[in-house]
Hints:
This protein is an alpha+beta fold. Helices cover 34% and strands 39% of the residues.
Amino acid sequence: MSEEGTAFSHLMPGIAAFVFVLLLAGHRLWLLRKTRGWRPISATVTDVRRRVNGEEATVLVDVEFLFEGTTVRVRNVTTDHDRITDCPKGSQIRLLVNPQKPRHCIREDYIRSLER
């Protein structure tokens, strides 16, 4: 391999890290913009399950909430918990809800953490 190829290959991890950071920042800004104007609401957990993907585990919850006089049910809301007991049936979680499409929602604490 030439010296130029070797020098470039040493730059690849740095370039890859830079691109990764740009993608994360872009996703963060996109989510913040997308959820602007969404309404905070308290939802009741109606079911909870743990999904394992390789070595990663995610706790998913089904929720129910009242929005403008209508009961809305949403499945598979992700949580940042890794144990089912952290988010039991009947517990409350805070969501941001799209007023035009109330089934589109996201955890309020996740969006608030992006604002920092």
